[in-house]
Design goal:
The chain has 241 residues and is α/β, with parallel strands linked by helices. 42% of the residues lie in helices and 15% in strands. The chain has one domain: Decaprenyl diphosphate synthase-like (Undecaprenyl pyrophosphate synthetase, 3-Layer(aba) Sandwich), CATH 3.40.1180. A six-stranded parallel β-sheet has the order 3-4-2-1-5-6, sandwiched between helices.
Length: 241
Amino acid sequence: MSAERIDRDRLPAHVGIIMDGNGRWAAQRDEPRHVGHSAGEAALFDTVEGALELGLRYLTVYAFSTENWKRPPTEVRFLMNFNRDLLLRRADELDERQVRVRFIGRRGRPVPRRLVDMIERTEARTARHRRLTLQVAFNYGGRAELVDAARAIARDAAAGTLKPDRVSAKSVQARLYEPEAPDVDLLVRTSGEQRTSNFLLWEAAYAELVFTDVLWPDFDRRELFSAVRRYQDRARRFGRV
Ligand code: IPE
Ligand code: IPE
Ligand code: MG
């Protein structure tokens, strides 16, 4: 699938991707699971190139969920180190391409301090860019995000700066991890699983869902283009007729 067949005037304002299938990709090769995670790096950066080529403005990728702590400690440790090293390796490239990097998720323990430091350095370094915003959902859960927003609302109500009867969808939106990000128009999940696994519950309320059997390490910009093409073939109604 080439980029030419995509209507540039009807691009999704925000694309979310659940990067799934690394472990199965490795198992197919009789390799340990971490080999699949490593192979996913090239897939991610080719996808980012594809997003830039298309002119997408917001791309959010699911890198580590609040549920992924339940994995074996060796895999969890690998993923913490891997994500830090990935930022070290790729920060120059992202900066040169004018990609603003943002992390969404909870940054406190048990996320290692040296990963949080690297995240904050990368965010600061790329903060001025607006060509593409790459949001990395890390220690992210849609429910945790809504719980955090509810806590913020409760604090404001207790402080007397927000009246309970005035709480609206806007009040919730304003307290999300990235309030400025537009709603997700297109949500892609790889590896054949057809569920959203606690990703962007609020933001993807009206997203078009595209599932592909491709395992994440085999994903690339052509797969992104074909997902955008499938999105453009959908009829969106938002409750209207
Ligand atoms: C997605 O691949 C990456 C993360 C969740 C970190 P998986 O590791 O879930 O791979 P499968 O689903 O077991 O194949
Ligand atoms: C979702 O994938 C999380 C990420 C891709 C980071 P999982 O592989 O953790 O989801 P489940 O467990 O299959 O729902
Ligand atoms: Mg998985």
